[in-house]
């Protein structure tokens, strides 16, 4: 099943890697980093080095098999296993934060859900930052550039009307393959119908990747359907096809400690200091060093290098070169959810935990027929506040937001607040995400991803997640010492803003209404989470459940934001020769999973950096 061996010429030994001369150093071989490296190295005169802290894991069946993703999360071989500090808003819980520890980064371990967000959300980036070049019209071409959409013919038992798309909104030849599910359980199909029958203003969007995805739809996944169905990620899309380029070099298991800054009136980044096999090494770049280490590691490297809030750097014993108070700002999506037992005879992925079912599923998969192992999340949807709340409840939400606005102490945060409030007021804005999985999810297992996604040992279950994609709460991630291998203090401050828990409570109530609508309700038995005695029409009871059953949706952003930390050309403010290109630059959250935007950011960033290279040589 392996799509390649690990013997790519671009994968270098330490000696060969250090022997090269490089125009650009890319720190991080994840979604955006490998995108940037592949596009820059299209020009044979540009020499590119990629430094990845994790291993290669190329051709690993656990990575390539779509339904195996739960086995990767929380496993040290694949996951950095980051943890938050205790969160007051979630009963002082410590939350697990998976981050990909291998080439491909989190694109190698994620749920493979492919989304883009709403047109207005990207336009808000320009509005908030005062910059140009990052509105929907500026980014949309880069979605087309990275996507290789396959118009899968669904099996006869799947309704074609569920698979709504228009080719004009998709890239057809890009390196990241996308396709609709080829397998859906009967309960997942029933959820789609129940959502349309629940008396809500829910429709099937004409194309959920057009810039308007409000409604319920079958989800596109980054799965290559040319065979049985394998994960399409940054390695298969951007690295392997370019693995023989002589001007591209990749070193794995190499941990960047900091960027090397030459001081003066205009500090200049000369390269990086990294460790490999217990020894430190220097590597220099002629044009620029690009941080693509992700929303946690990119700000960590900035702060280790002396760029960040002076008070944080002083405590860590690091000389402050650039005092930037907004390095390490943090936004995330949060989810809660509901789990039911399925009636006897209904299939769920919990079945695959049984040896005889697992053997049959593997046989189907290896025969090139997909089945449950060749698919990911099949249903998704987005709802506005107006879809789920009464007029009285909506007015209450507005009051809470306005009251809390008075506590904000700077113009930027007030402007952010006002944009988020405008989204709540828009009846077409995508505020909530719905995800369904025919599998057990323990929403109390936020501290341990293996517990969170552990299959039920005794029964089969159906879970639905409700995600809040425009959180008013905003946190931070900062170093705690000068040790580059010590994890930073990740503090997303979940539910700090009181409106977030209120919104999730309304979302859970609506989700349970759909679950109790035909034809889905006939397939469900006992509610497992929340317990049957929890009345989701009782706001206090629902809020109590939210505080004990809410966690990350794995989409951190804004830790090196456009306008605050980098300019519109992704240059780090106050220093030359240093750029950021990953989810860190997103200044305000979009509705949707972030891997699609990260590929688009990488594509757009690469075009910017090519222009920089041309200017450098002019």
TrEMBL record:
InterPro entries: FAD/NAD-bd_sf, GMC_OxRdtase, GMC_OxRdtase_N, GMC_OxRtase_C. Its cofactor is FAD. Pfam families: GMC_oxred_C, GMC_oxred_N. Coiled coil: none annotated. Keywords: FAD, Flavoprotein, Oxidoreductase. The keyword Flavoprotein applies. PROSITE patterns: GMC_OXRED_1, GMC_OXRED_2. It comes from the Eukaryota. Residues 100-123, 294-308 form the Glucose-methanol-choline oxidoreductase N-terminal domain. Gene3D superfamilies: FAD/NAD(P)-binding domain, Glucose Oxidase, domain 3. FAD binds at residue 256. GO terms for molecular function: flavin adenine dinucleotide binding; oxidoreductase activity, acting on CH-OH group of donors. The keyword Mitochondrion does not apply. Belongs to the GMC oxidoreductase family. PANTHER family: GLUCOSE-METHANOL-CHOLINE GMC OXIDOREDUCTASE, GLUCOSE-METHANOL-CHOLINE OXIDOREDUCTASE N-TERMINAL DOMAIN-CONTAINING PROTEIN. This is Glucose-methanol-choline oxidoreductase N-terminal domain-containing protein. It comes from Coleophoma cylindrospora.
């Amino acid at each position: 099943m392996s799509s390649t061996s690990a013997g790519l010429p671009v994968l270098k030994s330490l000696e060969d890697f250090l022997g090269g001369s490089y125009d650009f150093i890319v720190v991080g071989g994840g979604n955006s980093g490998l995108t940037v490296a592949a596009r820059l190295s299209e020009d044979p005169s540009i020499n590119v080095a990629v430094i990845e802290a994790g291993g290669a894991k190329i051709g690993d069946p656990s990575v390539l098999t779509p339904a195996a993703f739960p086995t990767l999360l929380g496993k040290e071989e694949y996951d950095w296993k980051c943890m938050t500090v205790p969160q007051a808003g979630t009963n002082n819980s410590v939350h697990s934060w998976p981050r990909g520890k291998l080439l491909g980064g989190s694109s190698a371990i994620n749920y493979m859900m492919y989304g883009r967000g709403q047109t207005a959300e990207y336009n808000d980036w320009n509005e908030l930052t005062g910059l140009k070049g990052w509105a929907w019209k500026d980014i949309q071409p880069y979605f087309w550039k990275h996507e290789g959409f396959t118009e899968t013919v669904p099996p006869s038992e799947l309704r074609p009307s569920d698979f709504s798309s228009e080719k004009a909104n998709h890239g057809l030849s890009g390196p990241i393959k996308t396709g609709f599910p080829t397998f859906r359980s009967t309960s997942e199909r029933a959820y789609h119908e129940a959502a349309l029958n629940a008396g809500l203003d829910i429709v099937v969007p004409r194309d959920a990747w057009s810039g308007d995805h409000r409604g319920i739809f079958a989800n596109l996944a980054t799965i290559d359907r040319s065979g049985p169905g394998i994960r399409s990620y940054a390695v298969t899309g951007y690295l392997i096809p370019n693995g023989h380029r002589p001007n591209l070099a990749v070193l794995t298991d190499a941990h960047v400690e900091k960027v090397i800054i030459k001081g003066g009136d205009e500090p200049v980044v000369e390269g990086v200091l990294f460790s490999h096999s217990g020894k430190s090494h220097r590597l220099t770049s002629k044009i620029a060093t690009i941080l693509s280490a992700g929303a946690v590691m990119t700000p960590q490297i900035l702060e280790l290098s002396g760029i960040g809030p002076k008070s944080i750097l002083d405590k860590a014993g690091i000389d402050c070169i650039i005092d930037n108070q907004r390095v390490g700002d943090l936004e995330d999506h949060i989810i809660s959810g509901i789990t039911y037992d399925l009636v006897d005879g209904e299939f769920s992925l919990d079945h695959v935990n049984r040896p005889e079912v697992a053997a049959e599923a593997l046989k189907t998969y290896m025969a090139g027929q997909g089945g449950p192992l060749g698919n990911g999340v099949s249903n998704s949807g987005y709802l506005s506040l107006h879809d789920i709340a009464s007029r009285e409840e909506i007015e209450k939400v507005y009051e809470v937001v306005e009251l809390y606005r008075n506590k904000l102490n700077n113009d930027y945060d007030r402007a952010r607040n006002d944009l988020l409030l405008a989204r709540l007021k828009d009846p077409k804005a995508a505020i909530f995400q719905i995800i369904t999985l025919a599998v057990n999810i323990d929403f109390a297992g936020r501290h341990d991803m293996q517990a969170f996604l552990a299959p039920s040992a005794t029964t089969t279950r159906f879970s639905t997640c409700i995600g809040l994609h425009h959180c008013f709460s905003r946190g931070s991630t900062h170093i705690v010492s000068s040790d580059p291998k010590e994890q930073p203090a990740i503090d997303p401050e979940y539910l700090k803003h009181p409106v977030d828990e209120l919104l999730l409570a309304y979302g859970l109530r609506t989700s349970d209404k759909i679950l109790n609508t035909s034809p889905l309700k006939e397939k469900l038995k006992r509610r497992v989470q929340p317990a049957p005695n929890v009345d989701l029409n009782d706001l206090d009871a629902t809020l109590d459940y939210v505080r004990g059953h809410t966690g990350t949706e794995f989409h951190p952003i804004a830790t090196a934001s456009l306008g605050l930390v980098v300019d519109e050309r992704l240059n780090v403010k106050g220093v030359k020769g240093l750029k950021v290109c990953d989810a860190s630059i997103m200044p305000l959250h979009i509705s949707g999973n972030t891997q699609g935007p990260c590929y688009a950011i990488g594509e757009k960033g690469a075009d910017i950096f090519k222009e920089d290279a041309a200017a450098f040589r002019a």
